[in-house]
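Record passed on underneath.
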Amino acid sequence: MLCGRCKQNEATFHFRENINGKIKEVHLCPTCAAELGYDSIISDMSSFNPFGAMNFGIQNLLGSLFSQELPNRSVLGGHKCSFCGTTFEQFAQSAMAGCANCYREFYDEMLPYIQRIHGRTRHVGKFPAAAGKELKLQRELTSLRKQLNDAVAAQEYEKAAVLRDKIKEIEKKVDGN
């Protein structure tokens, strides 16, 4: 597309102005853009980053989750997928599996990360609204009993007593239905 002003050079700057609801399109070459003062706007916009200092990308987001201290990854780095050859170290850096088999190969290595990200290693999912209340109470009981066992094992008896009382309260609700 040619410059809308000089009609000689290739237009590389394309602007849309909205003035009182009327949209005006301007197509300019670099020379005409500089002459009309658009070059200062362009230089300001070239350094504009809507995310600021964040490096926003799935690799950065998930890669940072894998970079935190958990198992020693240098030991795991030698383990390769038998199908595609991707190492766990490569998987952890890119947060992308090389193939579907990587999930089977690296299952044990991935569990601590999945636990930290999601809070558990099993998908629990939603349940039907009709059976929801009782099922929700049963799941809550199961979770509280696990927490109670963990508290007793850690000798946190005050916490265990609070959990025990919550369990008794929920059991009364379940028995009342």
Q: What stands out?
A: The radius of gyration is 29 Å.
